[in-house]
Amino acid sequence: MKRNREDIRNAIRENYTEVAKSGSAGGCCSGGSCCCTPADISDSSKKLGYTEADLLNIPKDANMGLGCGNPIAIAELKEGETVLDLGCGGGFDCFLASRRIGATGFVIGIDMTPDMIALARKNAEEGGYTNVDFRLGEIEHLPVADESVDVIISNCVINLSLDKEQVFKETHRVLKPGGRLSISDVVAIERIPEETRRDLQLVACCIGGAEHVDDVRKMLKNAGFDDVRLTPKENSKEIIKSWGFGNNVEDYVASYTIEAFKGDIENQNTGGINMKTLKIEWRHLDVEGETCDRCYDTGENLANEVKRLKRALEPQGIAIELIETKLDDSQIPQSNTILFNGAPIEDILDIEISENYCESCTALLGKETYRRAVKFEGNEYEDIPAKAIRQAAYKSLGIEEAKQESSKNSGCCCGGNSGCCC
């Protein structure tokens, strides 16, 4: 049976109203804990990435063990910043943010559930937090002024929205130029079964409404964000399994960190130069510290080319950052992937990547498997050579690649026009 949007929205609101009323005393759903209070809140919070220090001196009912990650860990909050928390619940992440931004900073928490807002305000009063404000509202229509926020955080909430594209447009609206989005959320990595999407409990508990990771990336870019990065949490399967829904839901949804910037990160100042940043992320198979031979070759090629890009681009005020993300054998379809500011290399160069049988993976894993192979067949690129990496970097930055002069006076170390290192 197809349900209308208001039925779904009311089911979500009722679900979290029950959580707010229960507080840290108990949960709401029969299964487990993405939307419900777990039996051991401290243990659950540590699995999500919070530290012992994070859990100390926080108002008793603020931490319900909810969420799918720790957005504070990736937000890099600075003193004096204004922080916005989407779906603040009892205020846990808001209070952690309050510690980091100090008395000169300000935190705004938004939640659509009146009981949650009442609980968060009570917690703030009892904890003596004076730089935190909790507001009732929907994340699709934020009660926040234009360009007034430095950082937006959120923990497993945007997946609940029935109009995620509108949420991202709103976040872009309220962020200051150079502001950033640092969130944890559940996204789909495979097609979600229709019966799961129709199950109101699974929608309310962060499973049924998850959007595919590629669609989330497109929505962020369409909203105007730059430097979009979506990264799976290493213990994603453990987190999703702990919610207790069964049916192998961890095979088609995963916990991700999602980061994006409004503008070209001009607020990151280095040596008096406003730096534009290109983040190159390499995702590869790593099992018990061993890397597949094909991944290793790609990584070596990539590392060498990044060094050359740094020499060429840093004098122009462009910072190059190489990020290595190690995946286990459950994430083989995503392995040996190269992203430039969040965009896959095949999208930038408009080429296809084939999925090939990999003997190296078979030997490493001790079982037959197919995996994503960075193999560009039928075009000018073969096995991600330096040319592909270089061209993707320049295209993602939107600048022209400088052409080399080929003359005997060029000053190349090899002389003549060989261009060996120039």
Which key phrases capture this entry?
disordered C terminus; 7-stranded mixed β-sheet; alpha/beta; 422 residues
Structure report:
By secondary structure, this protein is of the alpha/beta class. Helices cover 34% and strands 22% of the residues. The protein has 15 helices and 16 strands. The chain has helices spanning 5-22, 41-48, 52-55, 71-75, 92-101, 114-127, 164-174, 194-198, 200-204, 213-222, 236-242, 293-313, 345-349, 359-365, 386-397, and strands at residues 82-86, 106-111, 132-136, 149-155, 175-188, 226-232, 253-261, 269-270, 273-274, 276-287, 290-291, 318-327, 337-340, 343-344, 355-357, 370-372. The strands form 4 sheets. Strands 3-2-1-4-5-7-6 form a 7-stranded mixed sheet, with helices on both faces. Strands 10, 11, 12, 13 and 14 form a 5-stranded mixed sheet that branches. Strands 8-9 form a two-stranded antiparallel sheet. Strand 4, helix 7 and strand 5 form a beta-alpha-beta unit. Helix 7 packs across helix 10. The longest helix is centred in the C-terminal third of the chain and has 21 residues, at 293-313. The chain is globular, with a radius of gyration of 23 Å. The N and C termini lie far apart (64 Å). Mean pLDDT is 78; it is low at 24-37, 265-274 and 404-422.
